[in-house]
Recover the amino acids of this structure.
């Protein structure tokens, strides 16, 4: 009846077009869509196929795409990373998963010397369109050998692109761009974010949704101070900003999204507005992402707009301890960010 | 106890040999005292691991936890044939070796719960426990290239090294058939001789280890020892362990090949000990494990002052940056 159809239409219009998707599912969607779009794309790594992924990021993909596209490897990082690089050189588009980036150290020669430098060494003759992905940084209670952040290590190297998403839109859009990029990309995920749901716009849910590599995003506008971060700590910055707003301090929060190439222009534009800068990362302080930001700001036009030195909030300069109380004090907490903002603003 | 048989001889499974004319003996002698000691060691490891399972499920232990139950005969048998001054290193499934190498149950469980009474003062956790002549506990394992590099150098320089493979049939969720072109791991040393051993029989492991140790100590160079064993738990506490193997398979190993049951039945059927004696040992071990768990749950966490200590060894104190430039922390060796 016409009344029923009117009622139904009104009800359907009330359904939100945005929906909540976990970072894990967003990554899964990205890989699913790219596997479908381009038959040269394939995924290899430990437990990615029959186990559905150590952290279930590749759940369902082996069932859908089979042995040729989703490949379980033996526990041989140096070996399978090398095989993946060779496949990329020969024309395929591999996604090479490291169960965590700590294990990538077993294979780092392949990432740096075989993947990153080859385009340069061959004067552009040989491309290496590969994505190395996996969880990076601290988890919960996994101790010293399983908690390191590799953003600074990989971002140090010319020839590599280094991407570090925060929320689900970042994860999906950036992974799709990384897979479509013809260069080696190190894609740093975060295990603690896998299960976190974020709103994803209707646009982000489409199969052609990509986010450009090398462009940061202003997650929150503010006028008093700029906070720059990547990955999980973007969330911490937003939480700190909410607390500070109650005291009348308005923070501008920038989500780097890409570590290399770094979008310094976005940071500079913000600093020219706020005159104060705090960087926030989980990695160690020495030679880190924050250190690089400080140097670049100092070298560029925004330096003259600073009213105080840049403050870096980082992990403590120690191997990650196991005991919970020690681990909690080894990483930036929201109160550390709030403290640093106030010190930087001298309030 | 005068009625008990003081010593008996048991048939043990023949070891498969690679590049060896002779192997370990086919019979093992066991004294009553030795039997009770091996039983106690294996049962202690078993109960300790099951306690760790319980504490993990209660979220008192966090992070990674790779349990050893099912594999007890390996650690116990090896320790029975080596000296405390020999050097041993292992991967992440390390709790059993941590115990056999001399660390108390208390210190192991307190390390798992992250307390200051733990063997690494709570800073290492499950995969990073150490003792004199025991080099841990290591979280990341290169399973191919580095191993063969080690084989080469050990053979080249005739190093007295036993390369032990605890073959529990699965690398996390992947069966050996899906991960290895050859599953005859005892042959993978190629030019290095090897033996394949029944890793569920503590006497077999003991005799094989004695044979391997003699081989090394006599200057013949390295040797590979593959212990065929089984883990009842999944790869770690986050792996249920039943998506890549059947419950029937696990149950079959428990009923037919459990290392502790096998030793107990051997001793009972040869009148080497009584059922009551084993019960007493079980009760005593249960009590010890319970006390250790009590300690592990009540001992305080390490103090914050310890956060930055032990970065360097034998080094003057240094200042360590905290999470922000105004946080200056202290580190002593």
């Amino acid at each position: 009846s016409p009344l029923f159809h009117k009622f139904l239409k009104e009800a359907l219009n009330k359904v939100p077009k945005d929906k909540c998707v976990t970072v894990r599912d967003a990554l899964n969607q990205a890989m699913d869509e790219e596997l479908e779009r381009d038959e040269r794309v394939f995924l290899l790594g430990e437990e990615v196929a029959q186990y559905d992924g150590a952290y279930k990021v590749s759940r369902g993909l082996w069932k859908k795409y089979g042995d040729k596209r989703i490949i379980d490897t033996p526990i041989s990082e140096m070996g399978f990373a090398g095989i993946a690089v060779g496949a990329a050189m020969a024309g395929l588009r591999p996604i090479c998963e490291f169960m965590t980036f700590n294990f990538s150290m077993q294979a780092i020669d392949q990432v740096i010397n075989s993947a990153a430098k080859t385009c340069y060494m061959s004067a552009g003759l040989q491309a290496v369109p590969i994505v190395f992905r996996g969880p990076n940084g601290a988890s919960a209670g996994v101790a010293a050998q399983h908690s390191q952040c590799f953003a600074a290590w990989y971002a140090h190297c010319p020839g590599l692109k280094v991407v570090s998403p925060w929320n689900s839109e970042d994860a999906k859009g950036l992974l799709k761009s990384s897979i479509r990029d013809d260069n080696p990309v190190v894609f740093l995920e975060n295990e603690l974010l896998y299960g976190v749901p974020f709103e994803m716009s209707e646009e982000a849910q489409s199969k052609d949704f990509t986010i450009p590599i090398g462009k940061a995003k202003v997650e929150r506008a503010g006028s008093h101070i700029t906070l720059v971060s990547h990955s999980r700590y973007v969330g911490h910055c937003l939480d700190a900003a909410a607390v500070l707003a109650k005291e009348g301090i308005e923070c501008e929060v920038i989500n780097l999204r890409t570590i290399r190439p770094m979008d310094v222009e976005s940071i500079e534009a913000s600093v020219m507005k706020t005159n104060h800068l705090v960087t926030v990362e989980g990695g160690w302080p020495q030679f880190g992402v924050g250190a690089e930001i400080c140097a670049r700001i100092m070298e560029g036009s925004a330096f003259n707009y600073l009213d105080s030195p840049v403050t870096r909030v980082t992990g403590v300069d120690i191997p990650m301890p196991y005991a919970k109380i020690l681990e909690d004090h080894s990483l930036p907490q929201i109160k550390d960010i709030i403290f640093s903002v106030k010190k930087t603003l001298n309030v | 106890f005068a009625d008990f048989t003081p010593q008996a001889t048991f048939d043990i499974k023949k070891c498969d040999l690679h590049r060896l004319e002779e192997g370990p003996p086919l019979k093992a002698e066991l004294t009553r005292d030795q039997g009770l000691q091996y039983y106690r060691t294996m049962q202690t490891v078993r109960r300790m691991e099951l306690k760790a399972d319980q504490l993990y499920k209660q979220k008192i232990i966090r992070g990674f936890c790779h349990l050893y139950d099912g594999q007890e005969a390996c650690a116990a048998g090896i320790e029975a044939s080596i000296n405390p001054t020999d050097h041993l290193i292992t991967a992440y499934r390390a709790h059993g070796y941590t115990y056999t190498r001399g660390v108390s149950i208390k210190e192991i469980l307190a390390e798992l719960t992250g307390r200051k009474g733990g063997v690494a003062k709570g800073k290492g956790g499950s995969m990073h426990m150490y003792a004199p002549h025991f080099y841990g506990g290591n979280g990341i394992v290169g399973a191919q290239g580095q191993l063969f590099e080690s084989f080469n150098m050990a053979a080249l320089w005739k190093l007295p090294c036993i390369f032990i493979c605890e073959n529990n049939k699965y690398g996390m969720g992947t069966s050996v058939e899906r991960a290895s072109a050859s599953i005859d791991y005892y042959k993978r040393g190629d030019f290095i001789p090897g033996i394949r051993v029944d890793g569920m029989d503590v006497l077999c492991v003991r005799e094989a280890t004695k044979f391997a140790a003699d081989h090394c100590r006599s200057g013949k160079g390295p040797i590979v020892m593959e212990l065929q064993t089984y883990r009842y738990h999944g790869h770690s506490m986050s792996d249920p362990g039943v998506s890549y193997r059947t419950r029937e398979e696990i149950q079959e190993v428990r009923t037919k090949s459990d290392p502790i049951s096998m030793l107990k039945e051997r001793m009972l059927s040869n009148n080497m000990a009584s059922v009551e004696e084993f019960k007493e040992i079980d009760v005593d071990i249960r009590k010890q494990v319970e006390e250790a768990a009590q300690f592990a749950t009540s001992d305080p966490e390490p103090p914050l002052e310890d956060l930055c200590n032990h970065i360097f060894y034998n080094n003057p104190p240094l200042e360590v940056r905290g999470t922000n430039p105004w946080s200056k922390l202290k580190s002593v060796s």
